[in-house]
Amino acid sequence: MVSEELPAGTQSVGRALAVLKLLASSPDELTGSAIAAELRLSSGTANRLIRALIAEGLVARNPMSDSYYLGSGTVLLGQAAQRGFGMDKALPILEQLNAETQESVNLSIRQGSESVVMMRVQSTLPLRFEQHTGARFPLYTTASGKAILAFSPHAETYVESLPATLAKVTPHSLSTPRELSEQLREIRVRGYSIDEQENVEGVRCVGAPILDADGYAQAALVIQVPTVRMPKSRVRTLGDRIVQAAKEVSQFVPVNRAMSH
Question: Which residues does the UniProt record annotate as the domain HTH iclR-type (predicted)?
Answer without folding.
Answer: 10-72
